[in-house]
Amino acid sequence: MNIIPDSVLEGYIREDAVLVALRVIREYIDKLPDYQGRSFKRGYMKAYGVLPVGSAEAKRPYDFAVNLYSIKCYIRKPGLALLGPVGKQRVLSAFPEADILNGELRVVIKTADDAEDLLRCLFERK
Fold first, then answer.
1. Which of 19, 37, 54, 124 has the greatest number of CB atoms lying within 10 Å of its CB?
2. pLDDT value of residue 56
3. 35-63 burial by CB neighbour count: b if 16+ within 10 A, else e?
4. CA 94 – CA 79 distance, rounded (Å)
5. CA–CA distances in Å: residue 39 to residues 9, 64, 91, 98, 109
6. Is the pLDDT score of 83 beyond 60?
7. Residue range 34-51, pLDDT digits in tens
8. What is the pLDDT of residue 61?
């Protein structure tokens, strides 16, 4: 994984609403004391990865892959374990178009509201 500047991710996005959503995600993660985020590139994918402070890169529970017109959040297996069945169902209820592929839950984000809703599902346990 190659760490890249956040500006590289921002420069790749073509929709203003998606750019705002990425900033919402980064600002939210920056405020969490137990998590850290970093922009990276792996092959053709450019993403913002989120992981618990002090954990290995391979244990990233969440990746926010940047596309030209959206952000696709990959809730990886470690993230699903953190969510548990109730949290997973909350995400699926909030984002009915979400799908599961290769054991990862995938959610498409196009607006700041989408980003905020997903972040609440991921990090604000009830």
1. 37
2. 74
3. bebbbbeeeeebbbbbbeeeeeeeebbbb
4. 17
5. 7, 9, 24, 23, 17
6. yes
7. 999 999 998 888 999 999
8. 95
